[in-house]
Structures are given as C-alpha cells and as structure tokens.
Amino acid sequence: MRKKSLFFILLGFMAILLIACNKGETTGEEATSTEVIGDDKDATELKFWTFVELHTDLFKDSVERWNKEFPDRKIKLVAETYPYDNMHNNLLLALQSGKGAPDIADIEISRFPNYLQGEPQLEPMNEYVEPVKDKFVESRFDIYAKDGKYYGIPTHVGATVMYYNTEIMEAAGVDIDSIKTWDDYVEAGKKVVENTDAMMTTVETGGFMSFWSMVSQQGSDFFDENGEVILDNETNIKTVQFLYDMVHTHKIAEMTPGGENHMEEYYKYMNEGGAASVAMPMWYMGRFTDYMQDLKGKIAIRPLPAWEEGGNRSAGMGGTGTVVTNQSEHAELAKEFLAYTKLSEEGNIALWKVLGFDPPRWDVWESEEMKEDNKFYQYFGTNIFDVLLEIKDEINAVNITEKTPLVQQQLSTNVFTNVIRQKSQTPEEALKQAADEIRNN
C-alpha cells in the first residue's frame, strides 16, 4: 500500500512540475531526436534515453571504440533525446509500471532522489565503481547511491566558474584578474554598465543553478546533512537579496532572457554581447561552443569571486547520473558498456575531448591527452585545467534529497518571481514561505 501511495504522490508531483516548471520545451511523447549508432547486423541493441542531445556524442564515441575493441560483442545503440520533464516523467512511469524503460538512461541530479524511493528499479554498479573509486572525486558517486549501492555513474565534477567576455571587460576598463570578491564583481559591473552597452550579468528567475552555487560557496545549502530544510537560513536570505540588488539597486544585471541560462533566448542574448559574464559549471562550455559561436576567442574562464577573502571560489553544481535499468534484457552488457564509457581512463578523457566536461576521474586531469588541442582550448584558451586545479579543493558537496525537486519548483516559480520579477515579497518572506511549503509537503 505504501508503494502505491508513493507512486501516486510522485505522479501528482510530476504533473505539478509540468505545469509550473515549463522549460519552454514540447510536452509530446515523441523523441526530439533519435540516432542509431553502430548499426551492425550482429550487434546487440541497447536503448539509451537522454534529455541533452550533446550527451549522445559521448556514447557515439564510446560505441565506436567499443566495437573496434570488442568485435565479437558489438553494440548497436539507439539514442533517443526527449525534453527534460518528459523524459524524467516517462522514465519514472516506466520503472514503476515494470515496462517500457530503456536499457540505459541519464537522470539529472535534482530528479535522481525520485528514482531511489523504495526499492530502486536500477542496477547497482558496485562491481565497476569500487575498483576505481579512489581515482574519482568520490562525492560525485554519493549523490547517486543508496544503502551502499551505487546506481548512477557521474558525468563531471561540475566545478562552477565565471565566464567573462574579455572584449566587453576590456572596453569597460576592467582587469578580470582583479576581481577577487563579489564586492569587486559589483564594482566591476558598474564600470561595465557605465562604459559599454552591456550588462555585467543576468539573474535567473526560472532556474536555480547560479543561486545554488552562490550559497554552496558559503557553506550553505537547501538541506543540512540530516535532510532537514535550511532553505530559509540567513545565508540564503542574504544571497537572494544580493541577486535582487544586482538587478534593482546596483542595476548591473537584468533578468535572464527566457528565465534561465539554457534557453534559446539567452544564447542569442549572450552571443550578441548582451552581458559581460555568467557563472556556470565547467560543463557549460559545450553550450558556448554549440550555441554561442560568435564569442569564440572572447570568453575567458576564471574562479568565482569569493564572498570574503580566502573563501571558496567554486561549487560543484549540476550533474547527470547515468543508470542501467532493471528492465534491460542485456543488463550485464549494458553495465559493462556504461562503465567503459564513464569510468575508464579513456572514457573520462572523452568526457573532456568530446563534451568539454571536467571529468570526475582526477587522475586524468594532467595527462598528455588532456592537453591536446581541441575546440574548447581554441574557444576559451589553454588555461582551463589550470583554473580547475586551482579551485578543486574549494568545492563543497551538496545535499540532495527526495525533496530537492520541490526546492527547484519553489525557487523557480515562487521565490525568484515574487522577489526579483514582481517585487511582491522580501527575500526572507519568500524563502520562509517556500521552506514551510517544503517542510509540510
């Protein structure tokens, strides 16, 4: 009975998300793209679901390497990309109903707790994780684990950095290396607005990634280590006030076109020089190279400003855990292939070379292959991993719970809208209301 109740609660929650967290994507059940990789007659077919079309490139690279290395066990991968909400909802329903799930699937970090409720309908990956765990940033595995079993394989460290448009910053007379703190950042922003046609940055009202990185920098979070809601603590209130002030008091920022940093409107805005900077994880490099091509050679990567001298200059944000479902007819092959793709040295090097992600396997960071010229070095310069090595010990772990999606919903539909867009609530009022909603859910 308890499992049934949980199922219907999750169904209701997902329905609310579809209405309240519309990401501007279609809601039909058809895949937005399908790619067949390795179409050999004697290959074993595996189906892969993702919500980020770019992730297919990593698996394409892996299938090609796998089929050359293991010609007697070739794989044919059918990769299907769906809109974010649609894919997660369909996957959850398929796992609960016991039919219709793919062999392999991507699950975004904030949705992952939903798939760990009760008895996870996913295959544990311990036999592949445990032999190499000491070579990884281990906290990335913990996000996707339950009761000592590792279900999701991480995609990146997700170290948050600042991306500066050097053309705009130079026109404003600002040396980006002089920006050490967020106070420095605000003062630099005033020069940008005064001396150029650009804003210093934008503030998301439909997303929460930038806000989360800012509070994580300060040792705060949405939940404490025991899973208790701390969304409305003093640090978080102060941080929402800072975002409000950038827009309405200092006037160095405007609200993000499209609501968040993953929207077509935002890519166009940035590509045309609308803002001088954006704080996003290192995996966001792929968004620049694919959607903001006119900025090639103009974007420099630096650590985040600290909140105080000596404070953390990064935060581990976002993440996709890739899983093998228990409905796979070829579970052992799927698990071995997933480990080959995302746990091996070659796979982690490919995470960088193919997707531009900061690989969670730290022992490859200084390998010669990582230094080879590629589109990311050509776009951003050659200091990318110098920055990562500089900040790798300043990344706090985040606490993910089954209520993390509710926080996302509250922040993107209520808190930021009411405080920044409508100015109808103070940060304290909005966060306390949101926190109470989550506690009482």
From TrEMBL:
Which domain of life does the UniProt lineage start with?
A: Bacteria
Region forming the signal peptide? 1-20
Task: Tell me which CDD domains the record gives.
Answer: PBP2_TMBP_like
Q: Which SUPFAM superfamilies match?
A: Periplasmic binding protein-like II
Q: Which InterPro entries match?
A: Bact_solute-bd_prot1 (IPR050490), SBP (IPR006059)
Q: Which UniProt keywords apply?
A: Cell membrane, Lipoprotein, Membrane, Palmitate, Signal
Write the protein's name.
Arabinosaccharide transport system substrate-binding protein
